[in-house]
Amino acid sequence: MAIVREIESGQWALACTKVSVVPHNAAPLPDFTRWPSFPFEGDLRVKDLAPPVAVEPPRSGEDASDCVACNTSDDAYIWFSERWRVRAMDRPTGLPMVLILECRSHLDLGDLPNLLAAELGVMTVRLERAIRSLDGVARVHVNRWGDGSAHLHMWFLACRVRRSGQRRAGPHPVGVARDFLRFSDCRYVGHRTHISTELT
Ligand SMILES: [Zn+2]
To answer: Which of these, 71, 112, 130, 140, could form a disulfide with 198 (CB 3.0-4.6 Å)?
Structure first.
């Protein structure tokens, strides 16, 4: 294939060079897809990047009047205080427990004043301990993405389960491993009650 090349003299010239066509979407998979904890296998492909935009599109609930969190009463939460609330999923997710920590004020992570920023650290540790106190839970993943809803919400996922004398790969936060679907039963309700008691 002929391509244009700059030669030493600074002039441009046609040169004959063999080039191969870059296959569509040839981006390599990130290393974490090879971690033991990654729950998926088979052919995976990196999605193409969306074109850059001049202005970031609005997220759900950018305005407090439209914010689901701000418009949800305390009854929907398994624990709440003057400045923080903890929500559990309405139905089993396949994991032993999934919790969401929200500040009561309509703020995102970078907007937190020092008091709430400091309390976020304390609340993070409290929730991690509470979830880890569930029978069989050995590890808790803590995540904040911030791409969906504008109101700060931190995800807490019970992600590795202790088995007697046996270590099993836990699910990655973005998915649910098949082995954990057995937790999708009435134990989930008991787990929610346990967490509520632990935080009180
Ligand atoms: Zn809000």
So the answer is: 130
- What is the CA 159 to chain-centroid distance, rounded? 12
**Tokens for 141?**
């993943």
Residue 82 lies in a domain: yes
User: Average pLDDT for consecutive 10-residue bins of the chain (200 residues)?
Assistant: 44 49 69 83 87 92 96 97 94 86 98 98 97 89 94 91 51 44 62 87
Residue 101 CA, ligand 1 centroid: distance in Å: 13
Number of domains in the chain: 1
What is the whole-number distance in angstroms between the Cα of residue 105 and the centre of ligand 1? 7
How far does the centroid of ligand 1 lie from the alpha carbon of residue 106, in Å? Answer: 4
Residue 72: give the domain boundaries.
Answer: 65-199
The pLDDT value recorded for residue 159 is 78
